[in-house]
Design goal:
The protein is α+β, with helices and mostly antiparallel strands. The chain is about 10% helix and about 25% strand. It has 2 helices and 8 strands. The strands form 2 sheets. Strands 3-7-4-6-5-8 form a 6-stranded mixed β-barrel. Strands 1-2 form a two-stranded antiparallel ribbon. The longest helix has 14 residues. It is globular and about 40 Å long. The protein starts with a helix and ends in an 11-residue tail after the last strand.
Amino acid sequence: MRGWAYFSVLLLISCSSAPQRGGYYKDDGPGANPPANLASIPDAVPRSEPLHKYANRPYEVFGKKYVPLASVQPFSQRGTASWYGKKFHGQKTSSGETYDMYKMTAAHPTLPIPSYVRVTNVSNGRSVVVRVNDRGPFHSGRIIDLSYVAAYKLGYVGAGSAQVAIEAVVPGQPQRRADL
């Protein structure tokens, strides 16, 4: 169990290294051979899933305590989104899954793992649905880290971050688009 805790802290800290402003962060980016069909990669399909046993426990990063939601429930938030790419591609997420920058996934500090959210770029109105399977970001002012492909579809990979509205998608309940 101690090894899992140590691994979790390292993983949480790693998610805090996503881009802050403009362009790619250091050596991050789309990878050498991104799929040709990035725009046609489908959104995540919300479904009921059991919550992860360990990824939803309270935790602390950089002296700040986080208490994840204990159930999938209505939730909305506005703020800055960032993205993470090849630097973390192939590494384990907080859920224990392997991060794939070409899948529609996200990291959020307190949403249940797994859960689903609709993310809308407030500047252009583009919207995607992603599956939350990781923790982060841990930089002040940012509310969610998206996979490279999700950020690409929202139109902000070159900028590194964007203002977004997020809303939980609760399987079995009607979806509505987040107010811009």
